[in-house]
Amino acid sequence: MNKTWNNKAWWMVLPVVLLVAFSAVIPLMTVVNYSVQDTFGNNQFFWAGLQWFEEIVNSERFHDALGRQFLFSGIILLIEIPLGIFIAMNMPKKGWSISVCLVLMSLPLLIPWNVVGTIWQIFGRVDIGLLGAAANKLGIDYNYTRDIGDAWFTVIIMDVWHWTSLVALLCYAGLQSIPEAYYQAARIDGASKWAIFRYIQLPKMRGVLLIAVLLRFMDSFMIYTEPFVVTGGGPGNATTFLSIDLVKMAIGQFDLGPAAAFSLVYFLIILLLSWVFYTIMTNLDKQER
Amino acid sequence: MAEIYLKKLAHSYLPNPQKPEDYALKEIDQVWEDGKAYALLGSSGCGKSTLLNIISGLLTPSQGQVLFDGQEVTQLPTEQRQIAQVFQFPVVYDTMTVYDNLAFPLRNRKQDEASIKTRVAEIADMLELTADLKKKARGLTADAKQKISLGRGLVRQDVAAILFDEPLTVIDPHLKWLLRMQLKALHQRLNRTMIYVTHDQTEALTFADQVVVMYDGYVVQIGTPQELFERPEHTFVGYFIGSPGMNVLPVSLEGATAYLNGQSLALTTRYISQPGDKLELGIRPEFTQLSPIPSAHSLTVTIKRIEDIGRHKIARADYQGREINIVIPEDQPVSVDYKYLTLDPRHIHLYANGWRLKQEASA
Questions:
Q1: Under CATH, which number does the domain B4-236 receive?
Q2: Which keywords accompany this UniProt record (chain A) (predicted)?
């Protein structure tokens, strides 16, 4: 049998290969490159093996930042998800007020991260900020630059303000897709308001809620700009989350090796968590069928 | 269980209805007997869902009253009426098992678990759901889900009537028939009042003792399937029920003779009509006959085509620009030469403006 060999088709794949190479593989590889080498300057590098990884994984600094990160993500999820559901359930179902509501709620989502940080930085200032000055006038000792609790409070309220509407909008879409017959059937069955929520609304919102949790978790896990602008990671290291710590290490201290190892570990954690979420979501989908 | 009395009931979706056209449901005054199976039949938008929602309490009528066993319930919300309803699309509580679904209405009414258990077992047995009781409801097929919706209505002992809003729409055709038979059997066993909304005449005629035909907001006729077939009160009933429907032809009247484009037809009796009425003659295709030889009062028609549908043949004929359908028994010969159509005078109906004409009292 005469088979003609023609490999020209491989050229078709080239654009994708180049795109992926430049957008992901090569940048990632430079990080991998740094993570296994050490330098004393002068652009001279020598092999360091897994030394940086061992150092990062065992360092208290990394553990602390990771702990703060999980705490932060946990708290904002615990607030934003129930609050988002509550808001969605109380939004108007018909009429012109829907549009007003939707526009008002989308506003925080449209503001750039940096601006959100600046807004809250000023809002909370003790001398001129509406929140900070008012609180102090009322005799509440509030100062996010000095007090750890106040700093956390500010950063969390800021995130809740910025992102709860995303959860609410997703839940609203989920609620709107429930056919009227479900509510009618529930009335005929004599279901209480709580039962309607527990057995109709919540199950029907499950899909969008999973997406909301995933989006909010991932986004908050990678948060950088807003807390950086407001607290700069302080007071002390109290609000130094993973990204902030990474930037401090890489750009502040110019410890390229440890920072590269840090970012790879960070990346692997996110990858792992995404996988866990993905598995849970697909398993739930399978149960559905 | 209860008798349902719809007293001077009418409904309009407009705030200030003036003309009859403003009403989605024109005034009716009827008693629906306890334990019977009723079908509400009509095409889309005829007001049948409006009527159903008024009975179930999802809608408050703009005038008139609804009485269950003499008790006024017009203003009572759905949950306080003893009503169960099965919707077009199956409504089940996804996260619950079949058992919990069936127990749900009883648990909401704070019954004790032991009595719930026996009641659910009884109903599940009746609906052949016993094997699925422990399964999650969301994994079941559409027909099983519809049975669950029905079951949630049946578990309550105090239900006055069970309403069905086109419940077989999403069911596979071969299961439709089966489920309809089960419903019918259930009705005979339970003797509960059932009201079944549909636009499918087969469904209505096989399920119901009494068929309520609705057209343009009017209840045009209530009767047994046989009555609807033999004495349609409105041309719509004649046309909607039967396959093919009744032939309707414009006529003029003179005494006991009707004139169809100049051709005279002897009628069995005289009718009372008003000048200016739009008069029409109705005859079911089953009561017409084709023949190759002309006879007195026969109409000369042109046969356009003949369809053999197995049980009988249907001839589509043209009479001076009007289509007439003729049903011919399978064993009788027919061809395009059979040009002379005779109408059985005993089965000729006369209508004025759509409504059946009263006969003059035989003197």
A1: 3.40.50.300
A2: Membrane, Transmembrane, Transmembrane helix, Transport
